[in-house]
From TrEMBL:
Residues 58-238 form the ABC transmembrane type-1 domain. The keyword Transmembrane applies. PROSITE patterns: ABC_TM1. The chain crosses the membrane at residues 65-84, 96-117, 123-143, 164-181, 187-208, 220-238. It is a multi-pass membrane protein. InterPro entries: MetI-like (IPR000515), MetI-like_sf (IPR035906). The keyword Transcription does not apply. Pfam families: BPD_transp_1. Keywords: Cell membrane, Membrane, Transmembrane, Transmembrane helix, Transport. SUPFAM superfamilies: MetI-like. This is ABC transporter permease.
Amino acid sequence: MPARAALGVLGLAAIVALWWLAVAALARHNALAAQFGPLAAWQALPDLISEDRLLAHICASLRRIGVGLACAIALGVPLGFVIGRIKAIEAALSPALQFLRMISPLSWMPIAVMSLGVGDPPVYFLLAFAAIWPIVMSTAAGVQHIDTRWVQLGESLAATHAEMIWHVYVPGIAAHVLTGVRLAVGVLWIVLVPAEMLGVSSGLGYLILDTRDRLAYPELVAVVLVIGALGFMIDYAARSLYHRFGAQPTQD
């Protein structure tokens, strides 16, 4: 939609203009504020790419996102399926899962480091822990909302368990699972930056700390903008995936 895209561009331009005006006003009383402006961030971006190996840090962060999401899907979809399918298990596990879901993933940071050491393993754990809950809940909701007539039809045709799962449950819960994945991706991207402050030597979170320690404030702002841009693109990809494979066709 060209009109919608044009409005989006205008909105972003307005935010940048307000940002520039705010920094310009603050810079009159504090010279340091000028380093946080959009122009300074844009000028720092080439050095950030060449000297600080920005692309390598982006790849490290995306790898961790991929591993964390894959672990969350591998654990969350089967767990959500069982919870949605068997009422007794839902009643037994729901209080514990709701309790764990309400604990901030960042609260586990000290325990993760003490248990798994420094490096990637605790980051993977925190990301998987953060992403698993929307996937579990969406999958369980999808199983519970499957049309019982399809289940009865499969059973009347003497379908095996594998056939029921593949031909009835998988198509029936696909939209819900993809919704959970999209929500999980948003949570992952938020948790990623503080999680990458756990003794790793690469990633966008590490780069935030590095630019802060070097007092390279224009580069710090540039990294923040890169994080926002990448998050936007990842969410766009997740939405496109949902509309491609998960959206239900409308019936006239």
